[in-house]
Design goal:
rod-shaped
């Protein structure tokens, strides 16, 4: 009778072990699957938060909004000098469906601290780039914190550039044409609002 009890205990122990074994086999992949799906679902959300800029409404520069246009009988000498080039740029881009609107105003050069012979510096850390941003800020009437530069490219000659910018909320996109005026600074000569920034 002792052997029967012993066999009963052994069978019971084997049954418990077998149950635990199958339970472990099913539970481990289930947990791994849940963790995998959790990571798979949350990663796009995390990546989207990294990529998308913070949504902000562009705050127009108060000084630009309050400034009064200067009424003069004589044309701006800066704009008169570049009128032919601006007309040529507009004429060449008239069939471009990406351009929403071209704007020419009576801008003046942005003050510069640079002296001597000017060579365009395309580095994002240069003083030249900082002054280009100031000129763009004046041309599109936004503060520098309300837009970001996407690309800086060569213009129609050695002393001109095209700056591709967008508002921080990506609502408005512009291509701003700038020309260097010796000892005076960067002069916006044309602003083109575009659908997409293609450079």
């Amino acid at each position: 009778m002792a052997s029967v009890e012993k066999n009963g205990r052994v069978r019971k122990l084997r049954r418990e072990r077998r149950g635990n074994y199958f339970f472990r086999i099913l539970l481990v992949p289930l947990i791994i699957g849940i963790v995998y799906l959790g990571v798979k679902i949350s990663m796009p959300i995390i990546e989207q938060q990294k990529i998308e800029p913070k949504q902000a409404i562009a705050d127009y520069n108060a000084t630009a909004m309050e400034s009064k246009p200067i009424a003069t009988d004589e044309p701006n000498p800066y704009q008169a000098k570049f009128r032919d080039k601006v007309n040529e740029i507009i004429k060449n881009s008239i069939e471009d469906e990406n351009i929403i609107q071209s704007t020419v105003k009576e801008w003046k050069p942005t003050a510069t601290s640079q002296t001597g012979e000017h060579i365009v510096q395309y580095s994002f850390q240069s003083n030249d780039f900082y002054e280009m941003e100031e000129a763009v800020s004046n041309a599109i009437s936004l503060t520098k914190k309300d837009f970001s530069v996407w690309h800086l490219g060569r213009g129609y000659d050695d002393q001109s550039v095209k700056m591709f910018v967008a508002t921080t909320d990506l609502t408005y996109k512009y291509v701003v044409h700038l020309h260097w005026v010796e000892n005076e600074g960067w002069l916006p000569i044309l602003v083109q609002e575009v659908k997409e920034l293609s450079y």
